[in-house]
Design brief:
By secondary structure, the protein is of the alpha+beta class. The protein is built from three helices and six strands; from the N terminus they run βαβββββαα. The chain has one domain. Strands 1-5-6 form a three-stranded antiparallel beta sheet. Strands 2-3-4 form a three-stranded antiparallel beta sheet.
């Protein structure tokens, strides 16, 4: 049976806290309508999708937005921190050796 592994993809995502003013402007522009109970509708690649408190608004590599429930998001994604570029190595001086 063929098996597959998802390719690693870096996304940008913000957890909706019920207030759009905390979202970056381009993410706020994806919010099209405010609904009762603190829910908003987000324009995604598949049309309008509801986004509730604690859901995640994501932008993928193609630039399309999507909405994902928190429980699903936590199982699929982890925090990404790009590796720091190698720091230049410092030469060891006689003073360093004397103090060691």
């Amino acid at each position: 049976m063929p098996q597959f592994v998802a390719r690693p993809v870096v996304i940008e995502a913000y957890q909706f806290d019920g207030h759009t003013h905390m979202l970056p402007e381009d993410f706020r522009m994806a919010v099209r309508r405010y609904l009762p109970g603190g829910t908003v509708e987000v324009m995604t690649g598949d049309g309008l999708r509801p986004c509730k408190h604690e859901d995640w608004i994501m932008r993928g590599p193609s630039g399309d937005f999507s909405v994902l429930r928190n429980a699903v998001f936590e199982t699929m994604f982890e925090d990404y921190r790009p590796a720091e570029p190698d720091k230049p190595k410092r030469l060891v001086t006689r003073k360093d050796l004397a103090n060691a």
